[in-house]
């Protein structure tokens, strides 16, 4: 058993675990780190907060990815700043190199940002507890400096060693002395005595790739190629479920089909707070390293075809949109992800499978979904995102606060009596109430801790960001939207969507599933429309179990505005009169009526018995000829043809209107 001078009993502790290589997830690294925290808390009487477990899987501490936006340790620091993690509480980590492998200055700055706020850090190896006083303790500070320096040098040395080894291998590849184990999907490494000595071409993959190049040379687009391969159930090369447009593009751009191998290297990007790198080509490509499967002529023709299609699309694009829901959207019809697709008509959401030819592609405006989501998120009560078993906590907290206020009031009254008449009975009662008040305060604090889960903090942060969004512009707006996207992932599990068309109105049924198991259902459309009664009370998540008759994405419907336009048009009103009535532009009225099959010619109700069109609102008759409008009112007709007018309505003035047109209009 370890001995410590620190008072740890009763304090809340948090666990943090990290590993750099994603392949370590199959091992014991994460389990070993997370299992230690309960052991430590049990030994020293701490309370492990299991609602907040911080971890960074596959994130490098050498490059600082764990403290960048979305990193687990970055999240912990945010919780300290927000007051969710309080002074005296403990962060449990395996050793300091789990926290940082950055250069000493940056590592110390990170450690100081935690310790100066009163939060303590416990490391298992070497066994130590660091607090604010540690920063002024020469021995402990030297130990920290040693650990940070060792871990940074170790990672740097490993990086340099791998870099030197790779440079050596590149030279050997150029001489033909070394072959790669990681090869394009159409090749298989040929081994002798465990070493790769060459490559074999997969005949099935070869046929697929040649077909892709031929289709591209024939002018077929990548999306169409995807649909063809998926419809014919052609097996994919990379192990994916379906063919994707991006993978087709990679195949068409990959010069490995010509037998070339292009070495790459990571280059550091300077001028950033956190060190990062990007992949760049190194020297000239190595010719004839792989077996050639495509001729130079076919490859060049495919590139020319790709470039032509790219140039044709230039100018149609719009300003990029930060998709707030990236990674969260699912199409309930197939279960595939949905992504933003912008071909110049505004950002549209569409199923990835549908774009690749699997199922029907139904596009819905991204802005429509975002508007609806922002509306409900802004008005959503925070207790909705609390963990399910904590949903009742708000009532318990309010009840506890009332009881605590009652105790405080009783203490004030008892103290007043003690001042007037000191007695043992009053003193005992005062002590009793004081103890009870402290107990209630401690219980209240614990309930509030349980309530303030990670999801609740993220939801509260979401509300603040939504309030700041309308005032932001340009790069600042993009930065805010990116931050909001990261926050949503902490309290939203999935957003399931059934895209559909109600007539010509783009619409969607949406189910937002929260991390606590709760859900929020809503509908949205880009115009006011009457929804089919068959969809009432339908669970969008159970779409597969709906009756076949309503498992469709296209419904006969007319928007509320279109209904109004047709009603006014049936009354014989002019375009300008309809525009004035509906308060929309005359050009919009004309376009919408034309889409409804009501062209200007069809709107003129002319037959054998009628020379002009009745306009009920104006109480008269009108007709267009050579772009000119002719109009006559009932009063004028009565004066000109009193014998023909029987009443001041359509039927009573029809004969007079026909005669007026023959004399004055024609």
Uncertain runs with pLDDT below 50, 5 residues or more? 271-275, 311-320, 604-608
Domains, number: 6
Oligomeric assembly: single chain
Count of extended strands: 20
Give the helix proportion (percent range).
Answer: 40-55%
- Strand neighbour order, sheet with most strands: 2-1-3-4-5
Estimated share of beta-strand residues: 15-25%
How many helical elements?
A: 21
Mean pLDDT: 80
Shape designation: flat
Gyration radius (Cα, Å) is 36 Å
Describe the protein in words.
With 666 residues, the protein is of the alpha/beta class. The chain has 6 domains: 12-157, Resolvase, N-terminal catalytic domain (Rossmann fold); 187-313, Alpha-Beta Complex (Hect, E3 ligase catalytic domain fold), CATH 3.90.1750.20; 329-381 and 458-555, no CATH class; 388-452; 558-596; 604-666, no CATH class. Helix content is 44%, strand content 17%. A hairpin with a 2-residue loop joins β14 (492-502) and β15 (505-514). It starts with 11 loop residues before the first strand and ends with a helix. Mean pLDDT is 80; it is low at 271-275, 311-320 and 604-608.
Q: Which properties best describe this structure?
A:
five-stranded mixed β-sheet; about 675 residues; flat; Hect, E3 ligase catalytic domain fold; about 15% strand; alpha/beta; Rossmann fold
What's a concise summary of this model?
44% of the residues lie in helices and 17% in strands. With 666 residues, it is of the alpha/beta class.
């Amino acid at each position: 058993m370890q001995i410590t001078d620190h008072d740890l009993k009763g304090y809340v502790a948090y666990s943090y675990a990290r590993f750099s290589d994603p392949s370590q997830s199959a091992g014991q690294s994460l389990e070993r780190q997370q299992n230690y925290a309960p052991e430590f808390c049990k030994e020293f009487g701490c309370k492990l907060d299991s609602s907040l477990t911080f971890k960074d899987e596959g994130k490098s501490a050498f490059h600082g990815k764990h403290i960048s936006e979305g990193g687990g340790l970055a999240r912990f620091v945010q919780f300290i700043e927000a007051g969710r993690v309080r002074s005296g509480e403990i962060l449990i980590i395996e050793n300091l190199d789990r926290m940082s492998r950055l250069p000493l200055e940056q590592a110390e700055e990170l450690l100081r940002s935690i310790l100066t706020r009163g939060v303590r850090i416990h490391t298992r190896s070497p066994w130590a507890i660091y607090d604010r006083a540690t920063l002024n303790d020469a021995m402990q500070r030297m130990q920290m400096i040693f650990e940070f320096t060792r871990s940074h040098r170790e990672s740097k040395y490993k990086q340099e060693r791998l870099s030197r080894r790779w440079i050596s291998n590149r030279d050997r590849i150029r001489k033909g002395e070394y072959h790669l184990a990681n090869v394009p999907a159409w090749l298989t490494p040929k081994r002798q005595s465990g070493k790769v000595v060459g490559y074999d071409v997969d005949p099935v993959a070869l046929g697929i790739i040649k077909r892709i190049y031929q289709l591209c040379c024939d002018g077929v687009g990548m999306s169409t190629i995807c649909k063809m391969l998926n419809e014919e159930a052609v097996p994919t090369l990379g192990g994916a479920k379906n063919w994707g447009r991006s993978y087709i593009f990679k195949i068409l751009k990959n010069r490995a089909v010509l037998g070339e191998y292009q070495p790459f290297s990571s280059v550091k990007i300077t001028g950033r707070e956190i060190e990062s790198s990007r992949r760049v080509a190194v020297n000239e490509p190595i010719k004839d390293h792989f077996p050639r499967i495509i001729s130079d002529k076919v490859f060049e023709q495919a590139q020319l075809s790709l470039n032509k299609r790219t140039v044709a699309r230039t100018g149609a694009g719009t300003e990029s949109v930060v998709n707030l829901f990236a990674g969260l959207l699912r199409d309930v019809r197939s279960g595939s992800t949905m992504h933003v697709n912008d071909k110049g008509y505004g950002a549209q959401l569409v199923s990835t499978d549908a774009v690749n030819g699997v199922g029907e592609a139904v596009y819905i405006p991204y802005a429509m979904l975002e508007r609806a989501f922002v509306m409900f998120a802004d008005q959503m009560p925070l207790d909705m995102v609390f963990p399910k078993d904590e949903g009742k906590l708000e009532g318990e907290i309010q009840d506890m606060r009332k009881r605590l206020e009652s105790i405080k009031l009783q203490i004030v009254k008892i103290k007043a009596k003690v001042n007037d008449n000191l007695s043992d009975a009053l003193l005992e009662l005062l002590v009793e109430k004081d103890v009870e008040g402290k107990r209630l305060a401690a219980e209240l604090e614990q309930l509030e801790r349980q309530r303030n889960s990670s999801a609740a903090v993220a939801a509260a942060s979401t509300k603040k960001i939504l309030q700041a969004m309308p005032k932001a512009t340009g790069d600042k707006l993009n930065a805010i939207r990116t931050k909001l996207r990261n926050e949503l992932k902490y309290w939203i599990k999935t957003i399931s969507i059934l895209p559909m068309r109600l007539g010509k109105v783009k619409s969607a049924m949406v189910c937002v599933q929260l991390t606590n198991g709760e859900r929020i259902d809503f509908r949205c459309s880009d115009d006011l429309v009457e929804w089919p009664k068959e969809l009432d009370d339908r669970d969008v998540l159970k779409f597969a179990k709906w009756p076949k008759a309503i498992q469709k994405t296209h419904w006969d419907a007319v928007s509320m505005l279109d209904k109004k336009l047709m009603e006014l048009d049936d009354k014989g009103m002019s375009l300008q009169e309809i525009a004035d009535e509906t308060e929309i532009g005359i050009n919009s009225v004309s376009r919408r009526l034309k889409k409804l099959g009501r062209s200007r010619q069809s709107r003129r109700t002319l037959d054998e018995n009628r020379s002009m069109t009745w306009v009920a609102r104006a109480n008269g008759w009108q007709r267009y000829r050579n772009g000119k409008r002719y109009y006559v009112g009932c009063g004028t007709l009565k004066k000109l043809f009193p014998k023909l007018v029987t009443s001041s309505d359509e039927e009573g003035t029809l004969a007079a209107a026909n005669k007026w047109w023959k004399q004055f209009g024609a």
